């Protein structure tokens, strides 16, 4: 059986994403998608992200047991940091985003929320919570962040397992550049 041909990913345009954000009437829903877009987190990682794993002083998130049970570090910009701090003010959340019952949102719930707003805008291209991870990765690539650094930040499999122990050191050289890129796109 022949291998499936690889299709190029067709992302929504910046204008389509702006329209998507424009129809969101719930500020927490908007912040969920902004967080996905500006951290590169997988939706499951965001759902189970505990507030104690966010280091606001260093603009980093410690992803505990992400895909494949691996730990990694994600970086976020100062614009998102301010939004998250305002959102968390006065809250005693265990998880960054919680339902009214103080449990974390399920990945399915975030997918449903995304589908509702996508339908409101009428975007024809594929748009799911995972799309925001592609947008994040594409933005970093377009601004010159190397493939190697993007792989580290995204938590993608790379070469030797031995290198994994050095991953947290690898972000140091690119952290300030990533924060600058993310802040530019957030204005």
Fold and architecture overview:
The protein has 187 residues and is mainly α. It contains 9 helices and 3 strands; from the N terminus they run αααβββαααααα. Strands 1-2-3 form a 3-stranded antiparallel β-sheet. The chain has one domain: Intergrase catalytic core (hpI Integrase, Chain A, Orthogonal Bundle), CATH 1.10.443.10. It is globular, with a radius of gyration of 17 Å. It is 49% helix and 5% strand. Helix 1 crosses helix 5 and helix 2 packs antiparallel against helix 4. The chain starts with 13 loop residues before the first helix and ends with a helix.
- The CATH homologous superfamily is termed Intergrase catalytic core
Total domain units: 1
Helix content: 40-55%
Number of beta-strand segments: 3
Shape: globular
Question: How many H/I helices?
Answer: 9
| Adjacency order of strands in the biggest sheet | 1-2-3
Radius of gyration: 17 Å
Q: Low-confidence segments, ≥5 residues, pLDDT <50?
A: 160-170
Q: Could you state the order of secondary-structure elements as H and E?
A: HHHEEEHHHHHH
Class per helix and strand makeup = mainly alpha
For the report, how would you describe the main beta sheet? 3 strands, antiparallel
Instruction: Write the CATH fold name.
Output: hpI Integrase, Chain A
Strand fraction equals 5-15%
CATH class: Mainly Alpha
